[in-house]
Design a protein that fits this description.
By secondary structure, this protein is an alpha/beta fold. It is 47% helix and 8% strand. The chain is built from 19 helices and 8 strands. The protein has helices at residues 2-30, 46-49, 84-105, 111-117, 140-156, 178-191, 221-224, 226-258, 264-281, 293-311, 316-320, 323-341, 359-368, 378-382, 401-404, 450-458, 466-470, 474-480, 492-500; strands at 67-76, 170-174, 209-210, 352-357, 410-417, 426-432, 435-436, 447-449. Strands 1, 2, 3, 4, 5, 6, 7 and 8 form an 8-stranded mixed sheet that branches. A hairpin with an 8-residue loop joins β5 and β6. The radius of gyration is 25 Å and the shape is globular.
Length: 515
């Protein structure tokens, strides 16, 4: 009997080891087709991800007699440099790497492993942003993203943008954060290029307006909502706990792979470096190469969890505070319909409302519209119930930060006049990152009768105004909003690694994603 148990135990060990080897063989095969630039969550560059769409969705064929009469745009700023705080983190990482290398060199049995496995770029590596004093600004790549977006929007909707410019016809609004206002300017330069008399590009001046940060409930509602700020602060430790198992798994794998005593914080900083190098510098063969594709997918997932829990569907407060924005969008559509019905003189009414802000603005708006839901989750969000966390890789999921809110990510809501339609004369089409996207509130169509859009998508969120949502006591908020089932995810691979290669635990907290 004991012999049989011993054999069964041995077979389990052999099977586990074979599983590890087959796992890494699959990862090596995946390297060739894997583009890390499409897996950087909200740090993804717009051009790398804007055309990632659900191939199974068949968008509407808009009838020939339907004409666009008004456009709402809400866009995130373009690609930016890391903030001053994160640049200091990379300087600390550079010093930490040299310490790890020095420690490894002092261990005689590590010499062969060092020469064979440690990438050459780590020796003497310094942060590309070393010595920089300021950070967070729009970089030239981000300027180009928004400039070209402006050109494409004008080309796609020539009927809307054919009129002579006036600030009341084409309103441009932005937050008071420089990277957002710079994005608005870059977009406007593309949108109105060739329409003025300034320089060889025949540019023209245009007005850009903004509210004070302290009172901007339209585009920076997350900064004005005290209940949300308290709620977010209370939830950040729980989000860190959700990330820890994945970071621990990958830290163990890196330590085994390279023979360096990496900590959880080292792994988090190396992942941050990977995102910055790949997105801003187009470097994918340094920090990103330290990780296998599945590890990158898991790290991306942890970032997506943070966005989901703290900014998305994890709590209804996250998007309910964005009600002033969707109310403003609805109001602009109703004004455009009135102007059409009353045959106002061209040039006397608004045709486009263009807004430039942040991921914390675009994500809640996407939630208010019901985008990126799984299955029949619309009813849940309209009942203000939290949703389940996005499925863990390799399972498929709709919620991916790289498509929900990349740099330059945007939602466009286009109002169409369809005079020949018997059931509805006006329709709303939603474009996410310039592509039609299904709206669950409109039977998963991207082309929705205006009345249906108003009653089924917008109105369920208007039960309480901004002040009611944001000024209640935190205790009342937590009583009204149930906690999502944020159970830590423990990886079987992690358990296997720890069984075969026992390692010490790291208690350093992981860094939070900064948007």
């Amino acid at each position: 009997m004991a012999v049989i148990r011993w054999r069964e135990g041995l077979m389990m060990v052999v099977a586990s080891i074979l599983l590890v080897f087959s796992f890494f063989e699959l990862l090596d095969a995946a390297h060739e087709a894997f583009d890390v630039r499409q897996h950087l969550s909200t740090v993804s560059r717009y051009g790398a991800v804007k055309d990632i769409v659900d191939d199974s969705f068949v968008h509407s064929n808009i009838p020939g007699d339907c004409n666009p009469i008004h456009l709402n745009l809400v866009a995130r700023h373009g690609t930016r440099s890391p903030t001053k705080k994160r640049m200091r983190e990379l300087d600390n990482l550079a010093a930490r790497i040299q310490v790890l290398l020095s420690e490894a060199k002092r261990i005689p049995e590590q010499h062969d492993l060092i020469s064979q496995n440690i990438p050459a770029w780590l020796w003497g590596w310094e942060s590309p942003w070393k010595g920089k004093i300021k950070g967070g600004q729009l970089i030239s790549l981000g300027e180009d993203e928004l400039y070209r977006l402006g050109i494409r929007v004008r080309e796609r909707f020539p009927d809307i943008f054919s009129e002579e410019y006036h600030p009341d016809v084409f309103t441009v609004r932005t937050t008071q954060v420089p990277r957002a206002s710079a994005s608005a300017v870059a977009f406007g330069m593309g949108l109105f290029s060739g329409r003025g008399s300034l320089g060889e590009g025949r540019h023209r001046a245009f007005a850009v307006t903004s509210e004070s940060r302290a009172s901007d409930t339209m585009l920076r509602f997350y900064d004005c909502c005290q209940s949300y700020k308290q709620f977010r602060k209370s939830q950040e430790p729980a989000v860190d706990k959700l990330k820890e198992p994945i970071l621990d798994d990958i830290t163990s794998a890196l330590a085994i792979r390279y023979g360096l005593n990496f900590t959880r914080q080292d792994t988090a900083s190396l992942w941050f470096l990977c995102k910055q190098e790949a997105s801003l510098l187009d470097i994918t063969d340094q920090a990103c190469e330290l990780f296998h594709p599945l590890e990158i997918a898991l790290l991306e997932w942890t970032d997506d969890l943070e966005v989901f829990v703290l900014k998305g569907y994890g709590k209804s407060l996250n998007y309910r505070m964005g009600v002033p924005l969707i109310e403003d969008i609805l109001q602009s559509m109703e004004q455009a319909i009135t102007a059409k019905e009353e045959e106002h003189v061209p040039g006397s009414y608004e045709k486009a409302r263009l807004r430039f802000a942040h991921a914390e603005t675009v994500v809640p708006l996407s939630c208010l519209l019901g985008l990126f839901l799984e299955g029949s989750e619309l009813e849940k969000i309209q009942r203000e119930e939290p949703l389940q966390l996005p499925p863990k890789p390799p399972q498929r999921r709709n919620w991916r930060g790289s498509t929900v809110a990349p740099f330059g990510g945007n939602n466009m809501l286009v109002l169409y006049s369809c005079p020949a339609n018997n059931s509805s004369k006006y329709f709303v089409q939603v474009l996410h990152n310039e592509h039609p996207i299904p709206m669950p509130g409109c039977d998963n169509s991207d082309f929705c009768p205006f009345e249906v859009f108003k009653e089924r998508i917008v109105k369920p969120h208007l039960k309480e105004d901004f002040n009611t949502v944001c000024n209640v006591d935190l205790g009342q908020v937590e009583e009204k909003l149930k906690e999502p089932e944020n159970k830590p995810v423990v990886s079987k691979l992690s358990q296997l690694f720890r069984w075969i290669f026992p390692l010490g635990n790291d208690v350093t907290r992981s860094r939070k994603v900064e948007l």
